[in-house]
Amino acid sequence: MTQNPNFFLSVGKDVKDEYGRKIGTVASFAITPSGKFDAVFIEQGDGKFLKRSVENLRVEGTDVTLTSTIKSHISSLCDQIPLIWRKDQALKELVDKKKISQELYQELHHNFEGVINQLKSEAQKLLDELDREIEGCINDIKDLNYALVHLELEHEIGKIDNNSYETAFAIIQENLKRVNTEKSDLEQIQNKLSNILLGDTPHSFEQTETEAKTEEPPAESSSSETPELPEPPVVVYVKEIGKSGI
After folding, report:
1. Continuous segment of H or E residues that includes residue 60
2. Do 60 and 9 contact (CB within 8 A), yes or no?
3. Options 2.120.10.80, 3.40.30.10, 3.20.20.140, 2.30.30.240; which CATH number does 5-67 get?
4. I want to staple 24 with a disulfide (CB 3.0 to 4.6 A). Which of 28, 44, 78, 104 is the partner?
5. Measured between alpha carbons, how far apart are the two ends of the chain, in Å?
6. For the purposes of burial, counting CB atoms within 10 Å of the CB of 114, is it exposed (0-12), middle (13-18) or buried (19 or more)?
């Protein structure tokens, strides 16, 4: 029986998401009778336990990361939908060349259509879930901007000392960076899946895949994406404080 020792060594270690946020601590694993790792149990900060598939657990040295379930599902769909479509098109070419019978074509074509429709239904549910997650990121960015502005105000009038201000400022900025990165990632995979669902030919699928490989990642979003709280005043505060030696 072969086991991955990295999984066992991760017991008791912190688990973070892809953006560096702590999720909890590895408590145990569920292992099948054949000795295969099936799931990981994670104790969260509030004492509750989270069970996730080990397929979403990545162990690199001392770093333990739990990857996004929705992103892995979408990645799988982005591979499956174009593949089934291309197979269906190849099937049409075979019947046109009289290499298979019309009856066999109709049967297999019907099967491919059923699979495609099922995958598209799953994809639409994931797109709806992505909408909610992106909306959550937008709300987080808004709240973090409010927190940053209030921090600046209280520091400006002397209610927060410099050391406390620096600590709080770094925490808020780091979280803004994480949320903006997450939002950009979610929007990127949302666009990719949407383009695949809108595609009508194998060429459009191939073009989407090529664009996804060659497209430069979008510039990191900034808190200015939230119209209620533009970023420029915050940047001005940072520059002024930097000059004062804080």
Report:
1. strand 57-60
2. no
3. 2.30.30.240
4. 44
5. 58
6. exposed
pTM tops 0.85, yes or no: no
Q: Phi then psi for 29, rounded to 5 degrees? A: -130, 150
Residue 21 clears pLDDT 50, i.e. is over it: yes
State the Cα–Cα distance between residues 205 and 199, nearest whole angstrom.
Answer: 6
Average pLDDT in the 90-104 region? 93
Whole-angstrom Cα distance, residue 53 to residue 69?
Answer: 9
The pLDDT assigned to 20 comes to: 92
Length of the chain: 246
Q: How many CB atoms lie within 10 A of CB 234?
A: 21
How far is it, in rounded angstroms, from Cα 34 to Cα 182?
A: 37
d(C-alpha 112, C-alpha 87), whole Å: 8
Gap between the Cα atoms of 120 and 193, Å rounded:
10
Query: Residue 119: how many CB atoms within 10 A of its CB?
Result: 19
**Domain ranges across the chain:** 5-67, 70-243
How deeply is 221 buried, as exposed, middle or buried, from its count of CB atoms within 10 A (0-12, 13-18, 19+)? buried
Q: How far is CA 220 from the centre of its chain?
A: 15
